[in-house]
Design a protein that fits this description.
single chain, alpha/beta, 26% strand, 7-stranded mixed sheet, Rossmann fold
């Protein structure tokens, strides 16, 4: 695990721009865990990634459907939201298919129930509310793929 890298956003627009820069670095196969309280910007970030990847429909909170798949050509984006679920409740939800797609990007909100089922190489992003529209986004990588992703994004924001 690498050191924590920290980004800041002062608006939803800036969070979406950060997400677009993040999406430009995606090659497929990345797993991202997004944590933070309701309203911290997790879904705004997911929307920005989907837009940048050219997905036609815009993600909304997936809380009621748990997992949504967005597709453009051969690109797949899985948006998972496991708010209020326990680890025991997620075993039979069909994550195997999602994990078999080695080129898919997986963005998981409230991901803790999935942690034992997911590969270790994943980027963890913790969104913290800092008053008004300001957000602190801490990045922690857990493998070489996620480390390169985190460092590239951090460097682009700290030029």
């Amino acid at each position: 695990m690498t050191k924590e890298l920290v980004l800041h956003s002062s608006s939803a627009l800036q969070t979406r721009q950060l997400a677009r820069e993040f999406a430009a670095r995606l090659k497929g196969g990345e797993i991202v865990f997004l944590r933070g309280p309701i309203g911290a910007g997790k879904t705004v970030f997911v929307k920005g990634v989907a837009e940048a990847l050219g997905m036609k429909s815009s993600p909304t909170s997936a809380s009621f459907s748990l997992m949504k798949r967005y597709q453009k050509g051969k690109k797949n984006l899985f948006h998972i939201d496991l708010f209020r679920l326990s680890e025991g409740e997620v075993f039979n939800l069909g994550f195997e298919e999602m994990l078999e797609d080695e080129k898919a990007v997986i963005l998981a909100e409230w991901p803790d129930p999935l942690a034992s089922m997911m590969p270790k190489d994943r980027l963890e992003m913790d969104f913290t509310l800092c008053g008004a529209d300001k957000r602190r986004i801490a990045l922690r990588a857990n493998g070489p793929v996620s480390q390169a992703l985190a460092e590239g994004l951090w460097q682009s924001q700290n030029k």
